[in-house]
Amino acid sequence: MEKKTWTQLWLDYKKTKTSEDLSFLTEIILHGFSEGHPVIQNTLSELQLGIGKILGAEPAVKPADECEGKADRGLVIIKDEELPEEGYKLKRTGQESVMLSASTEKGVLYGTFCLLRKLSLAEDLEDPDICTAPENPLRMLNHWDNMDGSIERGYSGRSFFFNNGEIIVNERTRDYARLIASIGINAVVINNVNVFGEATELITGRYAEPLRKMSEIFAGYGIRLFLSLNFASPIELGNLPSCDPLDPSVIRWWEEQMRTVFDNIPNLGGFLVKADSEGRPGPFTYGRNQAEGANMLAKVIKPYGGLVIWRCFVYNCRQDWRDRKTDRARAGYDNFHEMDGQFDENVILQIKNGPMDFQIREPVSPLFGGMLHTNEMLEVQIAQEYTGQQIDLCYLIPMFKEILSFRTYVKEQEDTVADIISGRTFGNRNTGIATVANTGDDSNWTGHDLAAANLYGFGRLAWDMNLTPEEIAKEWISQTYTLSPDAAKNVLWMLLHSREIYEDYTSPLGIGWMVNPSNHYGPSVNGYEYDRWGTYHRADHLGVGVDRTDKGTGYAQQYNEPNASMYNDPQTCPEELLLFFHRVLYRTRLKSGKTLIQHIYDSHFEGYEKAQELKKRWESIRDELPEDVYPRVLERLDRQISNAREWCDQVNSYFYRISGIEDEKGRTIY
Amino acid sequence: MEKKTWTQLWLDYKKTKTSEDLSFLTEIILHGFSEGHPVIQNTLSELQLGIGKILGAEPAVKPADECEGKADRGLVIIKDEELPEEGYKLKRTGQESVMLSASTEKGVLYGTFCLLRKLSLAEDLEDPDICTAPENPLRMLNHWDNMDGSIERGYSGRSFFFNNGEIIVNERTRDYARLIASIGINAVVINNVNVFGEATELITGRYAEPLRKMSEIFAGYGIRLFLSLNFASPIELGNLPSCDPLDPSVIRWWEEQMRTVFDNIPNLGGFLVKADSEGRPGPFTYGRNQAEGANMLAKVIKPYGGLVIWRCFVYNCRQDWRDRKTDRARAGYDNFHEMDGQFDENVILQIKNGPMDFQIREPVSPLFGGMLHTNEMLEVQIAQEYTGQQIDLCYLIPMFKEILSFRTYVKEQEDTVADIISGRTFGNRNTGIATVANTGDDSNWTGHDLAAANLYGFGRLAWDMNLTPEEIAKEWISQTYTLSPDAAKNVLWMLLHSREIYEDYTSPLGIGWMVNPSNHYGPSVNGYEYDRWGTYHRADHLGVGVDRTDKGTGYAQQYNEPNASMYNDPQTCPEELLLFFHRVLYRTRLKSGKTLIQHIYDSHFEGYEKAQELKKRWESIRDELPEDVYPRVLERLDRQISNAREWCDQVNSYFYRISGIEDEKGRTIY
Questions:
Q1: Within 13 A of B361's CA, how many CA atoms are on the CB side?
Q2: How big is chain B by its Cα radius of gyration, in Å?
Q3: Which of A76, A307, A598, B427 could join A270 in a cystine, given CB atoms 3.0 to 4.6 angstroms apart?
Q4: Interchain pair B657, A658: CB under 8 A
Q5: How close is the nearest chain B Cα to the Cα of A585, in Å?
Q6: Active site residue A575
Q7: Looking at B11-25, B158-172, B345-359, which range is the least confident one?
């Protein structure tokens, strides 16, 4: 086998000093599961690799009938039908025995990765006493990979799924599956939600062979393959004159096509659909609503157990900047809220975390509190489209935690976003969480080495939403690098402060969008101000911000009480979202006692300063870092500092020029 | 022959009612010129076509020996060695005879086109009494065509010179040559000044055959072919480690290469070079100055009579927007002024009309008054990169006239730009005028049908700089369309007001650059404000404009007196350039009595209104226009109106928001 040109990230098992002798783990007793099952095969390989490297001794499987699952030495893997489908139990059953029980092979796989993580982290195995199951039924990655090999909003090289119109299935496909299974991901969409050209043909026979192969590799790691679908396929592939979801000939075409797809790829999980969004075709074209579009597909694929994941990113992207009544933030709720209860059981609405588009600070989408009888999935984006593009460091797990713990007041309790997407709130089964992935074929997978913490963190958080950003970061650091406690603390500081730093030097107080149009990196305060995208800050010489209260666009009223009132009043609106909800004068005092304009100046200078501190901390631990990693990250930190300086100076200069108000501290503004 | 898919523009000879019977012109007597000379052949064909169509009777050539050039009936073409090289004389020598005399075949050709023009315009031939020679030695088109067939800043389709890495020589090449010869163009650069890829190889044997063919067609119309040159050719083609112009091996390489080129293409006129400009390689890389670079090439090609046309578009395109000392406007003068007298006789500096880059309003480049011992050529741009991109109507001849009549005060008299580029001021021979061309393979050549008036006008003006924009427009209209006097007046109104209208709704008072970066169409007030291109308006809540006086960047001091003082003082600075030279407060009163801000509001509303009037006038003459032309122009006028509205609203809103000053007339500003 060729030498791999890619790293193993957090699965780069290293010899670890454990507090006790765990060599008994090299004896594996398998009970109730077949050694030949693909998932068990992969589990055993992983144990071989992991235990072999961590403990420095190769494990071996002992025939289960020797001990009937009651061995007092070894790692005993045993079936327990009581446990939930993907759950597992890890228990110290004796001085020299650990029991891993699960009801399914997937549970065994997840339990195994948990055990290996504990070993890697040198955690105490005295009494692990873990009994866990994932909170989210679907834990999904959305890759925006195009079939030519490019990746929309990809910052880590090219696709490892596609090249030149062909599908790639190789050793890296397997490592990818291992990596994401180890953090609990169970579903993957491999192609861009914007489906065009050859990608439309993924549902034809043309790519059946490699897709089946890929889906089988994935299935061996408990992962279901999904595809993004072109709603206009009946026209583009079937030569039909329309793709009206209520047209019988269109439905017949889909039935025929879907029979073929599921015949070709029996493991296929279903489809992700971006319809009526940013120029993509959809039911609106035919005067049909979103439910009619989604349900048509859902009914067609129901016999195969397929899911339709329907994105709610529907808004008018041809807005007139002069128009202050239309509010893009309202669009998701306005388009979907009234259809609550109309979607089929195997349809899931995939809702972006905020009402706009993955800005560094947005309120949580009101749709989460706006639908009581609809399957919902949260969509976040670890691809750092608006958050530094894997040049600037931005550990996003703190943001995700905030989103998940947001109370929707849709019920008296169990009403957070986490509750809703886990299915707890309404007792539904088809729910979950998805992220736009941040991977590519760069050797380190994520371009910025530290951006792998977002991939790791997403998976871990999707499984257990009670984990803290700090716990997750510590886990990731320890498994990825071998550092002294002090050095690890520096990396931890970098990760945990990075989001705040990025927010400080970019757009202030939730207003967003002060970014270069089209490439979305670097500042352009007015870049979207006179454009068609519904993204305005409305700054003038007196103040800045959008009035989204009951006196403005009324967006705040899309929330349940007390959120609606809380956002509606500038006194109670969380300050970090002040300019999202309110137009505020530059001389208005914030809670800190500072004026708004002074806050803008201060936070930007501070963000730029702290960006420099990121670099200093990285330099301080140079000696402990792998030789290739240190300069690779350093180069990005340098680019981040330049970017932070541009942001700081441009935003401050813009507001200084428009307001005419001097910085109290007399720093240079241009 | 296939039906032509392109029009004949102003050479679409139509039957014309002449005031007297001119049928005697069908007898052509050729004396002193050989019927076999390519230029004479083409002249006779043109007479055949033109006289045939205009008078409706085919002309025939009578052997000259029959009459010894003293025929008393017919068009007598006769040699007169006294006349200047490209000049001619047209004289009524009798009731039934006209004499066209010239010293060269080119003179005959130009005289013939003059005669045909007079016939087309139904001008009196009683006593034409024309004795003319072109004012500018070089009258040149610069095509920015790439070898893949695209055209940089091209708005009229694709290249008719190149496609897919190959050169096109066909029937259209000949029509192109006819068209431009008819307006006096005598030199053409066919490839983009940014030379990359295959275009670098135009000087190798690879394209020798089609280039020779093309140059022969051109030569048949008195046109010399020029090529744009890649200064880094010794590296890219010759595999040399450097292209240092003082390196003997580099010089040897050029000598060898140039011998080949001139062997291959004996008619070749020379080379246009963009060096050390916007990322193009040049002598600066090797610590050499511009003269050292240009002279090296000039010496190498001198034996072949070749010219080096060296562009002066050298500036720092990586400026920091924070830096208020560096002034891009200064760069041309700063980079070239001190080298006056150092350039070889066969080097011509090609200087853009303004110090920036083809904005709708700029002062004339101070370089024209800054060099006494250097060959200079004026470069203008009829490709409407910043002036509406052949969507918006913008007849540029009035602008060119202003530039040409600008007094440089380099001498007491004969000191205008026209004087300098014609060679009158300093008695030099290698001078002239060039324009970036606006043609492409669109059926109508220039995308917007009315943009052909810029091509026509450029040629006519280059020949005779005393012509007025109105005379030229009238000529063009009459030769292009068959209109009633009223309808012709409407088209004339459209042309003559178009520049002012465009200026009114775009960036105010000479400040420029409020345009979308990269595509250069449509408004973006801050689009270049925080960028690296040296193009800033510096607007804040009090005022706008760049201080280029002696208290600012000192640019005004690059002019000779009294210009320097005139520009330096806001009281004497021409108001249309006020913001180019001065920072002005919004409440400052202009000569009209209006405040600056009110002027901005008024001119923008007015420009938008007048753009609508353009359309009304076009609609009013619908019945008289060719069926294909009317809707093609109408569609562009509609796009112009949308564009004008965007400009008007964005510029007004920007200045309203930043200044907080209300429009006195209470119109809607956003």
A1: 23
A2: 26
A3: A307
A4: yes
A5: 13
A6: no
A7: B11-25
Alpha-carbon dihedral sign for residues B635, B639, B640, B642: positive
Q: Which helix (H) or strand (E) holds B292?
A: helix B290-301
Task: Please give the Cα distance from A47 to A39 (Å, whole number).
Answer: 12
- Separation in Å, CA A411 to CA A135, A141, A364, A407, B599: 19, 29, 17, 9, 59
Nearest CA-CA partner of B204 in B168, B258, B253, B273: B258
Per-residue pLDDT, A126: 84
Q: Identity (one letter) of the amino acid at A317?
A: C
Tell me how far apart the alpha carbons of residues A117 and A464 are, in angstroms, rounded to a whole number.
Answer: 15
3-class SS at A220? coil
Task: Outline where DSSP puts E strands in A305-391.
Answer: 307-311, 347-352, 376-381
CA B491 to CA B472: how far, in whole Å?
Answer: 13
The answer to whether the Cβ–Cβ distance between A523 and B530 falls below 8 Å is yes
- What is residue A347's three-state secondary structure? strand
Strands (E), A145-211: 162-163, 166-167, 187-189
Judge whether A39 and A27 are in contact, CB under 8 Å.
Answer: no
For residue B663, the distance in angstroms to the closest alpha carbon of chain A comes to: 15
- Report the C-alpha gap between A280 and B531 in whole angstroms: 33
What span, in angstroms and rounded, lies between the C-alpha atoms of B554 and B64?
65
Helix (H/G/I), strand (E/B), else coil: B29 = strand
Element (H, E) at B488: helix B485-505
What's the rounded Cα separation, in Å, for the pair B74 and B169?
A: 36
Q: Which residues in chain A are contacts of B516 at CB distance < 8 A?
A: none
CB A264 within 8 A of CB A208: yes
What pLDDT was estimated at residue B68? 62
* Phi, psi angles (nearest 5°) of residue A61: -90, 130
Smallest CA-to-CA distance from B502 within B647, B352, B622 is with: B647
Q: Is B126 a catalytic residue?
A: no
Please tell me the distance from the alpha carbon of residue A217 to that of residue A178, in angstroms, as a whole number. Answer: 10
- The angle at the Cα of A326, spanning A324 to A329, to the nearest 5 degrees, equals 110
Q: How buried is A645 (Cβ within 10 angstroms: 0-12 exposed, 13-18 middle, 19+ buried)?
A: middle
Confidence of residue A155 (pLDDT cuts 50, 70, 90): very high
Is residue B540 pLDDT above 80, yes or no? Answer: yes
Domains of chain B: 9-132 (3.30.379.10), 138-467 (3.20.20.80), 504-546+583-659 (3.90.1330.10)
CA distance B644 to chain A (A): 14
The kind and range of the H/E element at B99 are strand B96-102
Tokens for A395, please give them. Answer: 């550990």
Angle value at C-alpha A39, between A33 and A45, nearest 5 degrees: 100
B272: left (phi over 0), alpha (psi -120 to 50) or beta: beta
Which of A321, A526, A660 lies at the smallest CB-CB distance from B540? Answer: A660
Residues of chain B with C-beta less than 8 angstroms from the C-beta of A653:
322, 530
Q: pLDDT tens digit string along B166-195?
A: 999 999 999 999 999 999 999 999 999 999
Residue A281 banded pLDDT, cuts 50, 70, 90: confident
Whether the model pTM is above 0.90: yes
Using alpha carbons, select from A531, A447, A524, A438 the residue that is nearest to residue A153. A438
- Burial letters A156-171, b for 16+ CB under 10 A, else e: bbbbbbbbeeebbbee
Task: Give yes or no: A209 in active site.
Answer: no
Neighbours of A593 (CB within 10 A): 8
Using DSSP, state whether A31 is helix, strand or coil.
Answer: strand
CA angle A549, A551, A552 (to 5 degrees): 65
